[in-house]
Amino acid sequence: MLFLLLGAFSDKVPNIFRYITFRTMAALVTALLISFICAPAFITFVRKRQKDGQPIRTDGPDRHILEKKGTPTMGGGLLLVALILSTLIWTKLQNRAVWIVLGVTLFYGIIGFCDDFLKLTRHNTKGLRGTYKLLAQSVCAFVAVRYAQTLWPEMFSSHVTFPFFKNLVLDLSWLFPAFAVFVVVGASNAVNLTDGLDGLAIVPTIIGGTCFGLISYLVGHAKFSLYLQIPFVSGSGELCILCGALVGAGLGFLWFNAPPAMIFMGDTGSLALGGALGMIGVITKHEVVLAIVGGLFVIEAVSVIIQVAHFKATGKRIFLMAPIHHHFEKRGWKEQTIVVRFWIISAMFALAGLSTLKLR
Predict the structure, then answer these.
(1) Residue pLDDT, tens place only, 327-356
(2) Contact criterion met (CB below 8 Å) for 291 and 208
(3) Whole-angstrom Cα distance, residue 182 to residue 176?
(4) Considering only CA atoms, which of 151, 301, 298, 145 is closest in space to residue 231?
(5) Contact 329, 196 (CB under 8 A)
(6) First-to-last CA distance in the chain?
(7) Contact at 8 Å (CB) between 138 and 185?
């Protein structure tokens, strides 16, 4: 948007505004300021309309009913406003990769909003039916993936690359869209499952956004991608700006979501942010690296899958409660202890994921 406004004065625009690195930092700061400025009024607004706050699971830890009752949700709405506005201000609007990710982010945010709205109006933790939610997510992801395939050279549009190996590439052919949809939908729901304690999901999301900001920049730079022997995707460097906006919006939200939370992200934010990371991973051809960087999200999702599968097969539970962060709560760990330790684990996974850029 900034480039359109300054287009008539293109010869007078300082070169610094053309650098992706500068615009990324500017997007981060802009999103952070939007969050700080708008959050107090937004929290007051939703608190008045959500008198009982987000419904709390009755089968969860007992202290949640006492400590978290009355806390408003849908904070992801503010997060998305900061993210989208900041991105539109600082990115090049003609960039297709940015629009694909923003489209997925917004659509998944709408799905999450519907889910949160039904929970609030029904006064229970059941929102949209899981099948409807997954169907909507899958259709959106499929359309986005098919469009994203036009960004890549035809020679590797259906290929999956693997970290740590220079020449290991798998051609999935017509199965690639299904694989990519699985990545996007899986990332979205994994972040959603992780969002169960104050600040638990947003910091790993910020870490993931930081990592994929760097990856987007490198993948979109012909010389760097050639040197690192990673796929070159023309125009993907602009996604670095979107990642910067994500980090800024996340930091602004964390200020109000830090324990004890003044507002919850809700499915409005968690589904959208997870979908954004998943789509960025697909566009940059780093789907496997996404699973490493987002290792904490993978662990949370797998813990639920294992719990459900084992219970259906044997009638017994492996964990005291799933997702796994609730298991540790049931074992007596304090919330702040779980959150900080999971942040550390997330940072370790991120470092492992970034190391794959060089170790090939």
Answers:
(1) 999 898 999 999 999 999 999 999 999 999
(2) no
(3) 10
(4) 151
(5) no
(6) 38
(7) yes
For residue 358, what pLDDT is reported? 81
Q: How far is CA 176 from the centre of its chain?
A: 21
Q: Is 69 helix (H, G, I), strand (E, B) or coil?
A: coil
CB neighbours of residue 159 within 10 Å: 16
Which tokens is 337 given? 């202890």
Identify any residues that bridge with 159 across adjacent strands, giving them in sequence order: 171
Which residues pair with residue 161 across a beta bridge?
A: 169
Higher per-residue pLDDT: 249 or 3 = 249
Q: What is the pLDDT of residues 101-158, one digit of tens each?
A: 999 999 999 999 999 988 888 877 787 888 999 999 999 999 999 999 988 887 778 8
How far apart are alpha carbons 305 and 327 in whole angstroms? 14
pLDDT at 95 over 60: yes
Assess whether pLDDT exceeds 90 at residue 166.
no
Token pair in block for residue 78: 């503010």
Looking at residue 106, its pLDDT comes to 97
Tell me the C-alpha to C-alpha distance, in Å, between residue 343 and each of 86, 197, 205.
26, 12, 10
Whole-number Å distance between alpha carbons of 212 and 233? 14
What angle, 0 to 180 degrees and rounded to 10, lies between the N-to-C axes of helices 266-283 and 76-90? Answer: 40
Domain boundaries, the chain: 20-355
Q: Of 180, 92, 175, 83, which is closest to residue 140 (Cα–Cα)?
A: 180
Phi, then psi, of 180 in degrees rounded to 5? -65, -40
| Residues 6+ away with beta carbon under 8 Å from 1 | 88, 89, 90, 91, 93
- Is residue 211 within 8 Å of residue 350, measured between CB atoms? yes
- Residue 193 to residue 326: CA distance in whole angstroms: 11
CB 342 within 8 A of CB 205: no
Cβ atoms 323, 193 nearer than 8 A: yes
- Rounded CA separation 127/192 (Å): 13
